[in-house]
Specification:
Layout: H1 3-28, H2 33-40, E1 44-50, H3 69-77, E2 79-85, H4 91-100, H5 113-119, H6 122-128, H7 132-135, H8 148-154, E3 158-163, E4 178-180, H9 215-230, E5 240-245, H10 260-268, E6 278-281, E7 284-287, H11 293-315, E8 322-328, E9 335-337, H12 360-363, E10 367-370, E11 379-386, H13 390-397, H14 414-418, E12 430-434, E13 445-450, E14 453-459, E15 468-474, H15 490-507, H16 515-522, H17 528-534
Parallel strand pairs: 1-5, 1-8, 2-11, 3-4, 3-5
Antiparallel strand pairs: 2-10, 6-7, 7-9, 8-10, 12-13, 13-14, 14-15
């Protein structure tokens, strides 16, 4: 063998050893091509949340005044849920539930420091000892909650949250890699830039946002830009989970002027009986017609936003690999205290009540799921759902494992996409609690929905005309809650009151402090990071 041949074979041997070494290294780091392929093939997920969107605000849900062709198309190509409920009739508690997968009452919502003591986690505060103030802020328990964002991030997703947040500590501490246009506030002061009269609350770069830019348009562009970035270079090897959370159609009611004309024309062609009508209900005035031009223009901008997001997905070949879930956080703003009709902007009729109320108009919301890899047909389903279901549903739609001990109050809705499930196939009882008063003329109230029956329990205040009373409705035959059948069905009232009071005592008014209950709080998985740091030799601080 001559010297050239010797070095040739030696070089081949070294190349072979080097390649093998790197292959083993890649395998040992969990970065094999098989693993990367598995991650890259997972469904992208886009969650679209519209603020205060009522159950009758979309054409596909019955509106004759508003125009929502893009959302209607999403419903026609996906699955529309006809009996979807929010976990609460107000923004903040509902959003806490959506991101955590549990009743807002479990996390002390609706909160405020006073309500935490009166309706929430007195025993848990004792258990957690000195750190109780940090563990129980007045919103979502921040980085101690294993939120939806964290669940997707744990499985290798790009994660982003854009838009209304409203629940305290930033999205970046809840599992979202990036977050824009968020704040702890529940609404902008104006939907036109600069959005707030003083301070750069949304942390906008002023040189990039022109005065007068409409928030829905900016949010949509930011969302498209984020997805574009996630699809660039090596980033496209990972799927994405993107939340687009609109500030619309929450107050202030300001729509783009370009849409005013089309709705003014519609309004002028409506008969007197079709516009500017109200009725009284308890201590509230309720709007019963849809005729607000500004609100219609706002909703049209939201519809255009959905259309632009879908156009991006289609133009980038992502339509079949992206699941979309579209929903609202609570019912439409249709009620105000008596003599204040100016505060009402839409109508949920024929459903009763609106935002802040536990009648159907306050808690029924639109829910549309488009998931090409899961749904077997394009249809509507009467299967009953509630806000906590979105957490396990989105994980299931993405093909990810569920966390039953975390999203313990919700179930995956995927079976409703693949089977003809009916409303009564949902066996769990749904509960709601609203222990505070707000602006809608509502009373202090709680409710339970079980099978065909719904109990609405008022606890005052007497000064506003609310006595300690219970109402009962057959929600299957009387979804508009016009016929109170409590007197004719005392046993059913007693049964549902017992269920409701048991639920409230356990989570909402837990004042009977015991060592056992203290330990139970410490077992709550969503607080595992905190409890590990506040236990003393495996026991809670105040259990002795």
């Amino acid at each position: 063998m001559n010297i050239r041949t010797y070095f040739f074979w030696l070089l081949l041997l070294l190349i072979s050893l080097y390649s093998t070494k790197n292959f083993v290294l890649v395998k040992s780091l969990g970065g094999s091509s098989e693993v990367n392929d598995e991650v890259s093939k997972r469904q992208n997920v886009v969650l679209i949340i519209i603020d205060d969107l009522g159950i009758r605000d979309l054409s596909c849900y019955g509106s004759k005044f508003y125009e929502t062709p893009n959302i209607d198309k999403l419903a026609a190509e996906g699955v529309k849920f006809e009996n979807a409920y929010a976990a609460h009739p107000k923004c903040l508690p509902s959003r806490v539930s959506l991101l955590s997968g549990v009743y807002p009452a479990r996390l002390g919502q609706p909160a405020g420091n006073t309500e935490f003591v009166k309706y929430g986690h007195i025993n848990a505060k004792k258990c957690f000892g000195k750190l109780k103030a940090k563990i129980f802020p007045n919103k979502l328990p921040s980085n101690q909650a294993f939120t939806l964002g964290k669940a997707f991030k744990e499985h290798g997703y790009h994660t982003a949250y854009l838009g209304k947040w409203h629940i305290g500590i930033p999205p970046t501490e809840h599992g979202f890699d990036r977050a824009e246009l968020y704040s702890a506030l529940g609404a902008v002061k104006s939907h036109f830039a600069p959005y707030f009269p003083t301070g750069n609350i949304l942390k906008l770069k002023k040189d990039k946002v022109q005065a007068g830019t409409y928030m829905a348009d900016l949010l949509t562009q930011k969302t498209v830009d984020t997805m574009t970035d996630f699809q660039s270079g090596q980033k496209k090897n990972k799927p994405f989970f993107v939340v687009m959370s609109h500030y619309a159609v929450h107050t202030p009611i300001e729509g783009p002027r370009k849409f005013h004309g089309m709705f003014q024309n519609k309004l002028s062609n409506m008969s007197p009986r079709e516009k500017n009508r109200f009725k009284f209900d308890h201590n509230a005035v309720c709007k019963i017609t849809q005729d607000n031009v500004e609100y219609a223009a706002m909703l049209k901008s939201v519809d255009d936003s959905v259309g632009k997001v879908r156009a991006f997905l289609q133009s980038n070949g992502l339509t079949e690999s992206t699941t979309i879930l579209f929903t609202s956080d609570n019912g439409g703003l249709s009620t105000r205290k008596k003599h204040n009709a100016e505060g009402t902007v839409t109508s949920n009729m024929p459903y009763r009540g609106g935002k802040y109320w536990l009648y159907e108009g306050g808690i029924r919301v639109p829910l549309i799921i488009y998931s090409p890899n899961k749904q077997k047909s394009r249809n509507a389903t009467s299967f009953r759902s509630i806000g906590m279901d979105k957490y396990p549903t989105l994980l299931d739609l993405a093909g990810l494992p569920l966390y039953p001990s975390v999203h313990r109050d919700g179930i995956s809705l995927v079976p409703a996409l693949t089977s003809p499930l009916k409303v009564l196939d949902r066996k769990e009882t749904f509960f709601w609690n609203y222990p505070t008063l707000d602006h809608g003329g509502e009373g202090i109230c709680s409710a339970a929905l079980k099978g065909v029956y719904k109990l609405v329990k008022f606890d005052g205040p007497i000064s506003d005309g609310y006595s300690d009373s219970a109402e009962l409705y057959n929600i299957l035959n009387d979804p508009f809650e016009q016929n109170n059948i409590a007197v004719e069905n005392p046993q059913k009232v007693t049964e549902l009151l017992k269920d409701l009071m048991h639920w409230k005592r356990h989570w909402v008014n837990d004042t009977d402090y015991t060592k056992l209950k203290c330990e139970k709080f410490l077992e709550y998985d969503q607080w595992k990071d905190v409890t590990n740091s506040t236990k003393v030799k495996g026991k809670c601080v105040a259990c002795t």
